[in-house]
Amino acid sequence: MRYTEIKSCYLGPEISPEQFVPEHFFLFLAKGLITGYDGSKKYELKSGESCIVKKNHLARYHKQKYNGDFEKVVVIFDKAFLKTFQDKHQIKISTSEEEDAFILLKKDSMITNFISSLSAYYNDEGKIDEKFSNIKREELLLILLQKQPELYPIFFDFGHPEKINLEEFMNRNYKFNVSIERFAYLTGRSISAFKRDFKDIFHDTPSRWLVKKRLEEAYFLIERKGKKPTDIYIDLGFEDLSHFSFAFKKKYGLVPSLLKNQVLSRG
């Protein structure tokens, strides 16, 4: 099935583009390729496929165009919308034990037909008219819950993250560029408790440990795996190449590009 009339669009409130996922959202890929990462697993989404990205997780994805095109449909299922939906349909609150950030959905004609139906709701600006946003969001959620009932405890778990093993979590997620406040929240701690527990475990402050850990991984990827500095700094949690190069030189005495040249000269 082709989606020639589908434009990239969002239904629901805007969410921050940071690597912390504050609200559940549905992602359908009409054109292109998406590779995702949640700290422990890698995922791939191809044209015509869809997934749920879970709230209260760290995740990032990279997009690739296909024949020069990339089109996706994102539907945000925020807490306020889900609470209203829950009250309307009398759904009991439950607890989810699903740990993965990305939940790949089974291909289904009802989902593809829903995506195709959106083209009728685009306004003159090429966006979905806000008057229909909640109606279409409710329609999609009903489809998803009917087809995959195991999504009920995922969407209607309104609890906060529980206290978890901090050492295990940080060693798995240090590459994500999020604030200390986010790390504290996701490990079920206040800021003060997070810093105290972190000091007890790692004998360092979170900020210093994160930079050190990321730089050690960078050195390994360049020196042992032959990676280019420009290809790895973002995935290691650095905001820009200059900051990465400065921190790398401060720790190792040479800029990462020079280390790369040394590796190339060794053959």
TrEMBL record:
Signal peptide: none annotated. SUPFAM superfamilies: Homeodomain-like (SSF46689). It comes from Pedobacter panaciterrae. Residues 164-262 form the HTH araC/xylS-type domain. This is AraC family transcriptional regulator. Pfam families: ExsA_N, HTH_18. PANTHER family: ARAC-FAMILY TRANSCRIPTIONAL REGULATOR, HTH-TYPE TRANSCRIPTIONAL REGULATOR EXSA. Keywords: DNA-binding, Transcription, Transcription regulation. InterPro entries: ExsA-like_N, Homeodomain-like_sf, HTH_AraC.
